Amino acid sequence: MPRTAAKSRGAAKGDASKGSGQVQSLDRALSILERLADADGMTLTDLAQSVGLAPSTTHRLLTTLQQRRFADFDEEYSVWVIGVGAFNVGNAFLRNRRIVTLGRPVMRRLMEDVGETVNLAVEDQNELVYVTQFESHAPMRAFFRPGRRAPMHASAVGKAMLAEIDDAALTDLLHRKGMPRFTDKTIVDPTALRAELEKTRQRGWGVDDEEHTVGMRCVAATIHNEHGEVIAGVSVSGPSVRVTETRLGELGARVVQAAKEITEQIGGVAP
Prior knowledge:
With 271 residues, the chain is of the alpha+beta class. The chain folds into two domains: 3-93, Orthogonal Bundle (Arc Repressor Mutant, subunit A), CATH 1.10.10.10; 97-265, Beta-Lactamase (2-Layer Sandwich). The protein contains nine helices and eight strands. It has helices spanning 3-38, 44-51, 55-67, 84-95, 99-114, 156-162, 167-177, 190-203, 248-265; strands at residues 71-74, 79-82, 117-124, 127-134, 149-151, 206-209, 216-224, 230-239. A six-stranded antiparallel sheet has the order 5-4-3-8-7-6, with helices on both faces. Strand 6 (206-209) and strand 7 (216-224) form a beta hairpin. Helix 1 packs across helix 3 (55-67). The termini are far apart.
């Protein structure tokens, strides 16, 4: 075998080992970060045992993480803790979370399970804005064009959101936006709306019972951010002949579960 070929193969083998070692080191460092994130502080010995590494190896990785501010050593208690660098990276994910992209797989499953149109809406200037949708395959179905706006007081998502704000904020919103009537069932009295919002809080999901469009019913639950604040809502909408009053409880439970899954996907927490 020519010497140059042997040298080349040796170098390639060395590079592969080096690359493997780098991946292994990264995996070990991430394991350490995961343990630190779950604890208020860990000694070097406890941390090494929990990740299955020698104390010397663990200390070397911790030192590197400390230099990048992903880990820190609390001298007062002699324990290692998670560093501000880890917070910055995690916060970047929260800032750039893609609620539509992450929520659509959950919405698709919900649409297929219940057979009705599933919507995702956010609040903007005290109105709802529908941002994405999975249409039902049924010939007669609900349709909400992305970008369409809807009133808070006459929609399931809107009422689910309003149920989570305080009374002063609700009063201010109603004063500025009013409560226009859309159908004979639209709630246009603030006292009646407050009673409906109390029911919404108790059951955990909102209902639009033909209050915006005659012949259409909708149920919805809220999605929350990392602070437990409501930022969006997911809903199931369909003709009242299929979304019957006796079916509301079943659909309500389904949208609550879907909202919980999307909340978890974006790194949010329930209030």
